[in-house]
Amino acid sequence: MFTFGKSRRPASALSGVVVAAIAAAVLPASAALAQPSVPARYAQQHLDWQQCEKDSPLECAAMTVPRDWHHPDAGADITVEVSRHRASDPAKRRGVLMMAAGGPGGKGLMRPARLVKDSPSVGAAYDVVGFDQRGVGRSTRAVCENDAEFADFLDGDFRDRSPAALRRVVDRSRKFVESCRSRSGDLLPYLNTDQTARDMDLFRSLLGERKISYYGPSYATMIGAYYATLFPQRVERAVLDSNIAFDGSWESFMKDQPMSFQRRFEKDFLPWLAQYDGVYHYGRTAAEAKANWERLRGELGRRPVTVEGVVVGPNQLDSGTIQAMYNAGQGFGPLAAALAALDHWDVAKPEEKATVRQLFGGYADSSFFAQYFSVTCNDTPWTRDMDHWIRRSGEDTRERPLAGARELAFASVCAAWPTSPAPKVKVTGAGLPATLMLNSVHDPATYYEAALRAHRALRGSRLVTVTGGGDHGQYLAGNACVDGVVDAYLLAGTVPAGDTSCAAGPLPVPEGARAAASAAK
């Protein structure tokens, strides 16, 4: 919690007038005009740090922020929950490393604990801090549909292109928008990346830091790029991992996701599945494995499977498969095991059914999607012509069906979304030190082509390309080459002379294949 009064940190206790005057003095004229003044009731608050949870290595506090940074006296304040892990070696401390979560919709509050555990050297040198972004977790939350209502959003078969089916999809998307408007009130327009970046800068100020370093994966690359654009003089080092195309709009970025998910599925997963036909019995070639997957999808359309209250139909098969594409080590094996279990469902073991439920039943998290749609629909404009989306989604359903089939449902939400006041932020990299960017070539969610566009937009950045792989999220994911580049940058400021590359690690080997190999020796 926080209290009001005179701060022990002079930098945090400045009045709104003085803060604005200092900003105008240190920023270029165009940037200074873009910064709203910080009223004293925010700038002078004290963060009351308490242990986040029993046995947690983190401290947490509640930070009060305006609903709208551009009009801080309009509307009720909201809360952003923040966390920190103090540098474990105060003698080596070199500052603050701020983290944010991806999604949009991910929770970032507890993430510093894992980073410190996985990289003790970074944890020794930095106070690692995080936060639940406005709209999620312990912060003031967006509320749209509950889980049961959102399960209806995902019901049926998004590949069904009959007029009645298309109408149901559009109607359910509009129903979702209405639930957000009625249940989230006047919070909804202010859940956007610009507002989050300004929340971050207040957090920096309350920590008493003149500059911060930053690490963010996935959507958090966009948060970092926005922050660096708005406050370039307050960034020391920044690592952007698995990059959103923050050079343009969400619509233009998402139009190519069906391509990248399909590529990951067909170029990486299906050949891997065929390689281990002796374990999963799903086809000896990628083409046979794909045919079996399509056969299963058709059967689930005619006769869905229910496990522990979760209905697994065509859309759930798509969603679970999409989620498994993010990380080969964590996703390929469970997906293959679930597919095999569904093929002999009548005699499937309890542990096999548990895998199916976990893989295909965990997607309908309504709280995640309340934030996901708020940010993606608010940040940048969307085409509102439904004829356009029906045509476009029809093409993607035919040619890139894994993620293309759901395109109409997702785009229809943003097409019906209330007009947003979010300002346009053009990322340039002006005034920034060299920034480190990471991306794999087959990343399904933040695809490489988008990362290249973001790299060109962020002047002075260095891109580390992970070749031969497609995992989403590269730092502290088991690649020693990537970790070495990032740690050298964060700890010593060592920047690659130019763009560079690291080879991806090998794809996972199923336990059954290991056992067979050992027996053959």
List strands and helices in order, with pairings.
Blueprint: E1 2-3, H1 16-26, H2 29-34, H3 40-43, E2 46-47, E3 50-51, E4 59-65, E5 78-85, E6 95-99, H4 111-118, H5 120-125, E7 126-131, H6 147-153, H7 163-184, H8 193-206, E8 212-217, H9 219-230, E9 235-241, H10 250-254, H11 257-275, H12 277-280, H13 286-302, E10 305-307, E11 310-312, H14 314-324, H15 328-343, H16 350-361, H17 366-379, H18 386-399, H19 401-404, H20 407-415, E12 436-440, H21 448-457, E13 462-467, H22 480-492, E14 500-503, H23 511-520
Parallel strand pairs: 6-7, 6-8, 8-9, 9-12, 12-13, 13-14
Antiparallel strand pairs: 1-2, 3-4, 4-5, 5-7, 10-11
Description:
The chain is an alpha/beta fold and 521 residues long. The chain has helices at 16-26, 29-34, 40-43, 111-118, 120-125, 147-153, 163-184, 193-206, 219-230, 250-254, 257-275, 277-280, 286-302, 314-324, 328-343, 350-361, 366-379, 386-399, 401-404, 407-415, 448-457, 480-492, 511-520, and strands at 2-3, 46-47, 50-51, 59-65, 78-85, 95-99, 126-131, 212-217, 235-241, 305-307, 310-312, 436-440, 462-467, 500-503. Strand 13 (462-467), helix 22 (480-492) and strand 14 (500-503) form a beta-alpha-beta unit. It starts with a strand and ends with a helix.
Strand content: 5-15%
Query: Any idea what the shape is?
Result: globular
Distance between the termini: 62 Å
For the largest beta-sheet, the strand count, sense and barrel status come to: 10 strands, mixed
β-strand number? 14
Low-confidence stretches: 1-34
Overall average residue pLDDT: 92
Overall radius of gyration: 24 Å
What's the helical proportion of residues? Answer: 40-55%
Assembly type of the chains comes to single chain
Helix/strand/pairing category: alpha/beta
Strand order of the largest sheet: 3-4-5-7-6-8-9-12-13-14
How many helices in DSSP terms? 23
